[in-house]
Write a structure and sequence with these properties.
rod-shaped, 6-stranded antiparallel beta sheet, alpha+beta, 31 strands, 831 residues, single chain, 27% strand
Length: 831
């Protein structure tokens, strides 16, 4: 059989095998007495040319004879010899041959030497392979096992015997389950059977394993396997290579854990979510159970205090053992650590603490003996406590336990936990800082919004205000219900561009301006014009002094302003880039008002227009910001359609309607602030309003006093009649003197207070002044201001109206409040 070619990768046969080698016999005198046919093939000499001749003279060059004689002497001394010699071929060339020589004793006590030779190259290659095989079983650091087809062990090397902690001689005939822990046996045997059945090799497959001699230590091994066959192709078994890669696996796992820490912690700026991400990443790769505790001040988003003995808040817990969650302090609980516990020491010293064996750590018991007893019952046996520090500030601590995994924490685990905690602490501190800023913005925003809407006889109102998702930041949405003169009411919604403190502060300035403008009784389009000027001035204030645009805040807003009069049922509206309001009739029909669009506030110089409509009693006005109908997941048209459907059900209270709109349109965490204001219109009953037109003549004041006295007597308001007569007389006198000569209109309204209005055709505003002692007049408006709760002037297309308001006696005020709820209609009183 031909030897395999060099480098072919096949295992060569034994070159000294009888069917493969050349042989010769040499007697004790060096004469050749035997010669094989294979020897003839190797050296070219036929038997008749060599038999009886001396091998030294025939086969070796003179220069090699000394070497041959030394080999012969060693052979005679030791009874045998092997090596390589240069032999002369019949053609004269030198041939390197490997040889083995053994002594043969004849019956006559004569000694002969039996030689087996083969080409030196084959011998060397075969010897190398033998050395490799010997090295695999004696000196290889990688475990090697040869299994029979039934997976019983035929042979193992010393490395695998050391791993199993058994001598190699005691492992023959055993099975894997005799030295590996039970749960780890089945995966290995299943894979080996697959190799036997398919012939496909198993390459570097990692799996955990524990030996029966040391079940408390978990290792990770890399297993490779291949099927072994004889030359005929019959299956002899399977060879398995086992390498302990525990250290490499742990290093790779630690690196992967740190990478996951960077990728999975801090995905949001929510403090609770960030601490939960920390707990989720730590289990199960680093620990079997984990808790994250923050100092209470940190949990509130505040700056940390100097001391570390304050309470902590449990922010997150996670465990591979569900029962452990019932043993640990629950999320949200605020408590103190006992000074003798490892956690308290960690906070005080700001140093990590490793407790490899909890049974030897008595301080752990002091926190809660009952919880400790139950934790031991679940297998808790090792703990690490690491402080969470970032930017030099102590934020809290991370506690890690092992219960399911048998090996205790080691120094390498502590180092990993420190690196893990330091990265997570930065994310927690970022979330804390954001929480602090977000809460400051929310506080500012809430302080600028109305806490309670005033009750008003013109409308019944309900509202919803939902701040945006914390990741987006607070916005600049606002709403208002502002009482106006003449029992009227202003309804306002607005939205400032952007988010954050700047948007909230701008919203507060605009809201204050709206209140001021409403107090001056400007028409809706005039209010928007003044707001537009204000927004432009705010934008100019934001312009950097050096002229560069970097850092400039964009200032812009939308607004809807509506004024409703319950005596006339007229509603006047104007909008600046805002979405139109919805009107719902008493039968549930919903429509979006077609109002002039108007540019957003801040463009400057563009006109605004008002629209006026009449609303039936009980009509519902819905004012809202774009965050309501442009919520995530649907476009504007779809959002408006959803709003229509949510408003279209009659018979519900305003609060129920607000809830229905919120459920129909908003996700759990809206991406923008949402303001919704619902107002159901009321109408003052005819018996609550009395109005007269008085001729511009000297007797007008006397006529006004008489009508006022008679009307108030009919309403049962005699207590305020004298004061009202005096005020009305003064206002009518002024209108007669300075009103331009036209008729004067007197209107008295009984609402929560008593309203007296005098209208004339002059646009000249009355001014309050302090009269000198020598002046004959100039004291009338001073008396009016002293005798009334409020007074003022509003302008109309035809002139102006001077109005006053009186407080009613308690009994009369309760009667008026009851009239807000149930208004009965009847014939008008005629004084």
């Amino acid at each position: 059989m031909d030897a395999p070619a060099p480098g072919s990768g096949e295992v060569p046969e034994d070159p000294f095998a009888l069917h493969n080698s050349a042989s010769a016999v040499v007697d004790d005198h060096g004469e050749i007495v035997g010669w094989s046919e294979r020897a003839r093939e190797h050296l070219g000499y036929p038997p008749e040319e060599v038999l009886g001749r001396t091998a030294l003279e025939l086969l070796f060059d003179p220069c090699d004879r000394e070497t041959v004689l030394d080999a012969a002497a060693a052979c005679a001394r030791d009874g045998g010899r092997s090596g390589v010699l240069a032999v002369r071929h019949r053609s004269g060339r030198r041939v390197e041959l490997g040889f083995r020589a053994r002594a043969v004793i004849r019956a006559d006590a004569a000694r002969e030497w039996f030689l087996v030779v083969a080409p030196a190259e084959e011998v060397l290659r075969w010897e190398t392979d033998r050395s490799v095989l010997d090295g695999l079983f004696r000196r290889s650091p990688i475990g090697l096992a040869v299994h029979a087809p039934d997976l019983s062990i035929l042979r193992v090397n010393r490395a695998l015997a050391r791993f199993a902690q058994l001598p190699t001689t005691q492992m023959r005939g055993r099975r894997i389950g005799d030295f590996l822990f039970g749960p780890d046996v089945e995966p290995i045997e299943t894979r080996l059977r697959g190799v036997l059945e398919t012939g496909d090799p198993l390459i570097f497959t990692e799996q955990p394993c524990r030996t029966r001699s040391d079940p408390g230590r978990e290792r990770v091994v890399s297993v490779s396997a291949f099927r072994i066959e004889d030359p005929a192709g019959d299956i002899l078994g399977v060879t398995q290579l086992v390498e302990d890669v525990t250290d490499r696996y742990r290093a790779r796992r630690r690196l992967a854990l740190l990478n996951r820490t960077s990728a999975r912690i801090g995905t949001t700026l929510d403090l609770g979510r960030t601490t939960w991400e920390l707990a989720d990443v730590a289990v199960p790769d680093l620990a079997d159970a984990v808790s994250v505790d923050l100092l209470e001040t940190v949990a509130r988003g505040e700056e940390t205090s100097e001391g570390t003995s304050g309470p902590v808040r449990r922010m997150a817990v996670h465990s591979v053992v569900p029962e452990a969650l019932r043993v640990m302090h629950p999320t949200g609980e605020v408590f103190h650590f006992d000074p003798r516990t490892p956690q308290a020491r960690c906070l005080a010293e700001q140093q990590p603490i490793l407790e490899p064996v909890l049974l030897s750590s008595p301080g752990w018991y002091f926190q809660d003996p009952e919880r400790t007893r139950r934790a031991f019952g679940l297998g808790a046996h090792s703990m690490i406590v690491v402080p969470l520090t970032a930017r030099g500030l102590l934020l809290g601590l991370l506690s890690l336990w092992r219960a399911e995994r048998p090996e205790p924490f080691e120094e390498d685990d502590l180092t990993l936990a420190e690196e893990f905690a330091s990265r997570a602490a930065l994310c927690i501190d970022n979330a804390r800082r954001y929480t602090q800023q977000h809460q400051a913005a929310l506080t500012l925003q809430r302080s600028l919004l109305p806490r309670e809407l005033p009750r008003h006889s013109a409308v019944e109102v309900a509202h919803r205000y939902l701040p945006a998702d914390p990741a987006t930041g607070v916005g600049g949405d606002w709403f208002d219900v502002i009482p106006l003169s003449g029992a009227r009411v202003a309804l306002v919604v607005g939205d400032v561009v952007g988010h954050g403190l700047h948007a909230a502060a701008t919203m507060g300035r605009l809201r204050t301006a709206v209140h001021t403008l409403a107090g001056l009784d400007y028409a809706p389009d005039e209010v928007l014009s003044h707001l537009d000027d204000l927004v432009n001035r705010l934008a100019d204030e934001q312009e950097p002094a050096d002229g560069h645009a970097q850092g400039r805040q964009i200032v812009g807003a939308t607004c809807l302003y509506a004024v409703y009069d319950p005596t006339s049922r007229r509603c006047t509206l104007a909008r600046a880039g805002h979405l139109p309001p919805a009107v719902v009739t008493s039968d549930g029909a919903v429509s979006l008002l077609d109002l002039p669009q108007g540019p957003p506030l801040g463009l400057g110089g563009l006109p605004f227009e008002s629209a006026e409509l009449e609303l039936a009693e009980g009509s519902l006005l819905a004012l809202y910001t774009n965050g309501l109908v442009e919520a995530r997941g649907h476009d504007l048209d779809e959002g408006l359609e959803r709003l229509r459907k949510a408003l279209s059900r009659p018979g519900r209270s305003l609060e129920e309607t607000c809830t229905a709109v919120q459920n129909a349109l908003l996700p759990d965490h809206p991406r923008d602030d949402v303001a919704l204001l619902l107002a159901r219109t009321r109408v003052l009953a005819p018996e609550q309003v009395a109005s007269w037109e008085l001729a511009a003549e000297p007797t007008a004041a006397a006529r006004a006093r008489h009508l006022t006295q008679a009307t108030l007597s009919g309403w049962g308001l005699e207590e305020v009649a004298f004061t009202a007569e005096l005020v009305v007389s003064e206002l009518v006198t002024n209108a007669y003197r300075y009103g331009g000569g036209g008729p004067v209109t007197l209107r008295i309204i009984r609402d929560r207070g008593l309203i007296c209005e005098v209208s004339d055709r002059s646009s000249t505003a009355p001014h309050l002044r302090r009269a000198r002692t020598t002046d004959e007049g100039g004291r009338g408006l001073f008396l009016v201001a002293q005798l009334t709760e409020r007074w003022g002037t509003r302008y109309t297309r035809d002139g102006k109206t001077v109005w006053t308001e009186f407080l009613l006696p308690p009994a009369a005020e309760e009667h008026s409040a009851a009239a807000d709820v149930t208004i009965t209609r009847g014939p008008a009183d005629s004084p």
